[in-house]
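Sequence only, no structure available. Ideas?
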Amino acid sequence: MSDPASTPSRRPGEAALASLGYAAPAVDPADSSPHAFPDGGTWRTEIPSVEGPEALAAVLKEATRLDVPIHRISQGSGVWMLTDSEITDMVGACAEAGAELCLFTGPRGTWDIGASTRSLSGGAGLRARGHGALAGCVEDALRASELGVRCLLVADEGVLWLLHRLRAQGTLPADTTFKVSALIGPVNPASVAVHERLGADSVNIPSDLTLEHLTEIRRSSGVPLDFYLEAPDDLGGYVRMYDAAELIRRGAPIYLKFGLSKAPGIYPYGGHLRDLTLQSAKERVRRGRLALDLLARLGADRGMSPLGSRLPGPLHRFPATEAD
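Reply:
I predicted one. Tokens follow.
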């Protein structure tokens, strides 16, 4: 990336448009987020949909080849779709690369027996239906934790609250972090603040939110946000590459997620989807390189957290125990 000291920050096409009488309005400093990660950084990177050890190896190799720094690797099929040895292999590989590994918890609505998720309304979506699904998510969290995983993806507010309480009582390690999935991403300042208080350490907000929406969220919550610069088609297929610098300025602390549109779904992953999964995994890294190059050209690549950084810093919580 470019030397921050030698490249002033600018907006895309700024000088050329101004010369033709189409100058953009001045940046309002009040729109800038006052928050940052505890290491002082304002943004981190994430490669999603890394479904097993082989895909992870492909991602790490491509990241080395293209010089793409990765703070977090996330998986979407779920803990229960991986063997113990696969999980421990991924934990070891991520530790060696200095990246956080995040695995999805438990059964969720779209793979359950309920029909409402397949209706036009979408029903309860990805949430855990009934006590059995809730228990499955908790079981996944406990198993993953015992195998060394310290970041868990959740798609249900009740699951989030229970896992946070288990963390507070010491059943889950204190340094475990919880990431709210894009599949239930909150869309307003109050709902983001509620997820933070329920135990979220990062919240994936939908990629169709406007820049002004990010500013509104940052006036009520400092929880790290996860944001697809390019969203999968089942999340809208939005491409926000040219917004990257503004997303950082308004949304910090933020994880820039390098997703992939126009790619078939791969959840739940199995060997029958191997070639597609490996090719799409490598392409997500390439998308990351494109985003980093764009930030560098705009002089907006400063402020990235050091590799290996993973904790969110102090956050607001509801009382997790009766004593609280």
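Residues 55 and 157 are 29 Å apart (CA to CA).
Hope that gets you unstuck.
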